[in-house]
Design a protein that fits this description.
Helix 4 packs across helix 5 and helix 5 crosses helix 6. The strands form three sheets. Strands 1-2-4-3 form a four-stranded mixed sheet, with helices on one face. A four-stranded mixed sheet has the order 5-6-8-7, with helices on one face. The protein has about 250 residues and is an alpha/beta fold. The N and C termini lie far apart (about 55 Å). It folds into two domains: about 80 residues, no CATH class; about 150 residues, Metalloproteases ("zincins"), catalytic domain (Zincin-like, 2-Layer Sandwich), CATH 3.30.2010.10. The chain is built from seven helices and eleven strands.
């Protein structure tokens, strides 16, 4: 008996576990990760709740933290759930977004596939199989990305001189939780999904990332740089957060 108990004490717990806990009457599934950190940290994103705990954190401590943060956790998870959009059906007549406008997707069966073409409020997609949603999605995604690359470079070219900055390169991103990023070497990446948004929000993200070429942080000085070019940035930032499943700064 003593030997078994000793083995349990010496055997390290699994680094990652999937668990469920009851928080204010709501069953909540979460991922438990054991790390070298000294405190318990909670993170909520589109994948749900992740709890990072010290390697030897006790169950009592973990339970106490979860219960203490119960209402916050449940509220945040409900907020994420409400943001989740229904995946589009890639069919003829489907509505899609483009620079804040609604376009009607028109799918045309053709002997040869061809790049989509924008005609007024319609995006015409020629595919060999009009029932193949994967092929339609791929064609529309590639069209979005081409449009995004062109527009983002145009908006950067407009704002960079106003802010007295010169990004080394502007590239597209497909990040799940960021609208944009900027490196210390001057590489600006902008999420191609931005092309679906109104121009004022695209411009806000562009200005935000270019401002990092002046201040590589989110200090008061950084927001001052943003405000000089985008005086209503607080309003735009609030609007941006309503676009999901992504989460922006």
């Amino acid at each position: 008996m003593m030997l078994k108990k000793l083995r349990r004490l010496l055997t390290p717990p699994p680094a990652v576990e999937q668990r469920t806990v009851n928080l204010v009457g709501t069953p909540v599934s979460y991922t438990l990760k054991r790390t070298s950190r000294r405190s318990i940290g909670l993170r909520i994103d589109d994948r749900g709740l992740t709890v990072n705990v010290p390697l030897r954190a006790s169950e009592k401590w973990l339970h106490s933290v979860l219960q203490d943060k119960a209402r916050w956790v449940v509220g945040k998870l409900e907020n994420w759930q409400s943001k989740k959009s229904v995946p589009p059906q890639w069919l003829d007549g489907q509505d899609i977004s483009f620079v804040g406008e609604t376009l009607a997707l028109r799918v045309v069966a053709s002997l040869f596939a061809a790049p989509p073409q924008l005609h007024g409020k319609q995006l015409i997609v020629h595919v060999t199989d009009s029932a193949n949603q994967a092929a339609i999605e791929q064609a529309v995604t590639q069209w979005y990305q081409r449009a995004a690359e062109s527009m983002f470079k145009e908006r950067v070219a407009h704002y960079a001189p106003l802010m007295n900055v010169s990004p080394r390169i502007v590239k597209l991103s497909s990040a799940r939780t960021q609208w944009g990023s900027c490196t210390v070497r001057g590489a600006v990446r902008l999420n191609w999904h931005l092309i679906k948004m109104p121009l004022r929000l695209i411009d806000y993200v562009v200005v935000h990332e270019l401002a990092h070429l002046v201040e590589m942080n989110h200090s008061a000085a950084f927001w001052g740089v943003v405000e000089r070019v985008c005086p209503d940035y607080v309003k735009r930032r609030g609007e941006l957060k309503k676009w999901s499943p992504m989460a922006g700064e």
